[in-house]
Amino acid sequence: MRRILTIASIVWMEMLRRKDIYVLLILLGAMLAGIVSLDIFGLGGVAGYVKDTGLLMAWLFSWIMTVGVSTRELPQEESRGTIFSLLAKPVRRMDLVAGKWLGCWTVAAAATLAFYVLTAVIILLKGGKFSFPVLVQSYFLHAAALSVVAAAGLALSTRLHHDAAAAMTYVATGAAYLILPRVSEFMAGLSGPRGIAMMVLYYMAPHLELFDMRRRFVHSYGPLHWGIFAVILAYGMLFTALLLLVAWLSYRRKRFARGALG
Amino acid sequence: MAAAIETRDLRVVYPSRKGAVTALDGVSLTVPVGTVFGFLGPNGAGKTTTMHVLLGFVAATSGEARLFGADVRRSIARQRIGYLAEHPETYRFLTGRELLRKAGALFLMNGPQIRRRVDDVLRLVDLGEAAERRIATYSRGMLQRIGLAQALINDPDLVILDEPAGGLDPIGRLSIRRIIAGLRERGKTVFFSSHELSEVEMVCDQIAIIAGGRIVAEGAASELVKPGESLEKYFMKVVSGSAEMRA
Questions:
Q1: Where are the domains of chain A?
Q2: Do B91 and A260 touch (CB under 8 A)?
Q3: Which of A37, A42, A68, A189 is deepest in the core (most CB within 10 A)?
Q4: pTM score > 0.90 for this model?
């Protein structure tokens, strides 16, 4: 476990020193401040509008950040050659994959927490109200979704270059969020192998929309039943574990051979 | 004497579009504990591939390799070794001291052990004053030295060095030679590749020459090289003889 934490801490230090997080936070803050200061359709002062915009931005920025970081870590280790000094130590490939995932996920989750705090402060400043348990549930489910996205990004980056892995992860996770919930509508009209294929896709792919509590937060519907909340968290953990297993299977026999034949 | 490194019939074949490339073709090697072992060969002979197999970066197509008796495919085999790559690359956003602390943590050393060992290796490679600076600001020679420091952080019993003096000035080379001599005095095993044959002659107890993925000579330098002959001349003779045989 200590090796995993050490690898995760290296991801953290890199993120802090590359200043990616600060840029994203400043950008988010500036956009949020700009949007709420505009009185679009006379809605500028409505707290619900601030809630909606704030959480939408948080989802968007955290998704971009998680995909960017998770798909960069492993290919970067190879391209700059640091993988050699890392794997020359008693570090298992599984430790490396798990450490990278933990680092990427916790960085993204921490930045997302800052987004949520910023949004909550702006809502309160605008005189709005919100349910604290709903905000807490929203954040934890959001973090669980980021965990799945980070694991997917890492799994794809074990065999693809950063750009290709990032593009694939954006498409796959974007589709899982936007298209997958609609698949059940198509399934009704399909039969035979196409229907089965669609059903397999529907049940095997992660339903990221389950983690999105924005509507509940914006319209003050009240918190989810804690049992359901726990089941969705467990669903996120299961998919994270499956994707990390795929990443490890793909990475465990990979050959690293810069300067080989020499 | 027990073996620090033992390989038997190692074969590594890289698939390629133009047909398979055989990088190692039955390499069998024994490096006894406590020796300084020079691993020589022309470019493309298989030196780095052999080291990569020993370190688990590349899985052998067939054959076996062991470090202190442990199969190199198991991560525990790397607990007692240190490695310096030919072009040591490291996390340039860290300071020298931070890098060494992280390296110590990967060996599961405890806090006081890490602190003591970091100071020791920084002193050994003469980087004490630059320890708090980001590695991004280090010169080529300093990068080589911080690479060596992280390779020695766990006080390894076996040190694998791939061209340790490559790109260093004469002072840097002398420093590397002194460190290798110091390791030998402490009973450590050093396995290193180099193109600097005069250097190899100075520090090595034993050598092996690899050419075309095969070991073509192995033994004590004093036994292999005839009186009045230089290692360089012997090396050229053996390597060109091997090339003719393959042709």
A1: 2-253
A2: no
A3: A68
A4: no
